[in-house]
Design goal:
The protein has 114 residues and is mainly alpha-helical. The protein folds into two domains: 67 residues; 45 residues. It contains three helices and no strands. Helix 1 runs parallel beside helix 3. The longest helix has 30 residues.
């Protein structure tokens, strides 16, 4: 029982770390003047995803709770594993194409440098 509780806490930690990881990878792959648009898009997707996720979770829980009360945990663990596999694939593909996981930022010339 204690081991499963620790496993759930570890999985939850990785679940919370996915969004900052994805943001850091994405921000390094766009130009500096495009980052505001990128993060605004992420915010819209996060809000829409959270709203749809809450509705779906409520309906799913009401459907499966009478059958097996713990199945909702298994479903969420499977979703987190799928997301983790997709991020590993993204990191592998990026490393294969560019030689590094996060690309270097380009240096921009500003008025202060002149």
């Amino acid at each position: 029982m204690f081991l499963s509780a620790c496993s759930a806490a570890a999985a939850g930690t990785f679940g919370r770390a996915l969004i900052p990881m994805l943001r850091s990878i994405s921000s390094a792959s766009v130009e500096v003047d495009e980052q505001g648009t990128l993060f605004a898009g992420y915010a819209c997707v996060e809000l829409a995803g959270a709203a749809l996720f809450n509705i779906a979770v409520g309906k799913l829980y009401n459907t499966v709770a009478p059958i097996w009360n713990g199945i909702i945990f298994v479903i969420f663990a499977a979703v987190l594993c799928i997301v983790l596999l997709l991020l590993v694939f993204l990191a592998y593909r990026t490393k294969k194409e560019h030689g590094v996981i996060v690309t270097e930022r380009k240096t921009y010339r500003t008025f202060e440098n002149e």
